[in-house]
Amino acid sequence: EAGVAQSPRYKIIEKRQSVAFWCNPISGHATLYWYQQILGQGPKLLIQFQNNGVVDDSQLPKDRFSAERLKGVDSTLKIQPAKLEDSAVYLCASSLTGGGLTEAFFGQGTRLTVV
Amino acid sequence: SQQGEEDPQALSIQEGENATMNCSYKTSINNLQWYRQNSGRGLVHLILIRSNEREKHSGRLRVTLDTSKKSSSLLITASRAADTASYFCATVAGPSGSARQLTFGSGTQLTVLP
């Protein structure tokens, strides 16, 4: 079974530039998560989709971050404009069902460095 | 916000010893999950324990849950150098259904010395 695919693996941008991350979840998984993990900390939930609808985006900085999940499958996370404090690993995860009732499968993440 | 807090933040043991990590949380949960993260990699699910369960085993892993104390522990027996990683507890809580969040703690960095 193919896992969660993310791209790119690494990205370096200057502050105030924009960047986009892509995620392809495991086929058939209804729930998709985006997490931000700053070095030395645990993952912080940014947004959670159930199929193509947003379930929770309470911790997404909506003035600069946006995310969409087209046709309930692939998802993109965009930052515009980026700030130095956005430097982190962005993790995408998917699970078969919603509500955290089944395990989440994580991609390898995209490491973003903002200079 | 982070629901779970792991203790200790870092743990260093010799190969063959047992490792115990603890997780405390603040609100009522539906279930609690443990994940492992090797350096520079994504997280891997280890075990899920539901709120009506008290103990669960998977290979060398033993997880306990005490909902009255809002705490959980992860025991790794007969540790190996390959167990070196960060371990996170994650709680599932929220109103109902698909709106429940999977919230991670700050993690325990385990180092197993050969």
Describe this structure in words.
The complex is a heterodimer of chains A (115) and B (114). Chain A is mainly beta. Chain A has no helices and eleven strands. In chain A, β5 (44-50) and β6 (53-56) form a beta hairpin. The N and C termini of chain A lie far apart (37 Å). Chain B has 114 residues and is an all-beta fold. Helices cover 0% and strands 56% of the residues of chain B. Chain B contains no helices and eleven strands. In chain B, the strands form two sheets. In chain B, strands 2, 4, 5, 9, 10 and 11 form a six-stranded mixed sheet that branches. Chain B is globular. The termini of chain B are far apart. The mean pLDDT of chain B is 92. At the A-B interface, β4, β5 and β10 of A face β4, β5 and β10 of B.
Helix/strand layout:
The complex is a heterodimer of chains A (115) and B (114).
Chain A: E1 5-7, E2 10-13, E3 19-24, E4 31-37, E5 44-50, E6 53-56, E7 65-69, E8 75-79, E9 88-95, E10 105-106, E11 110-114
Chain B: E1 5-7, E2 10-14, E3 19-24, E4 31-37, E5 43-50, E6 55-58, E7 61-66, E8 71-76, E9 85-93, E10 101-104, E11 108-113
Parallel strand pairs in B: 2-11
Antiparallel strand pairs in B: 1-3, 3-8, 4-5, 4-9, 6-7, 7-8, 9-10, 9-11
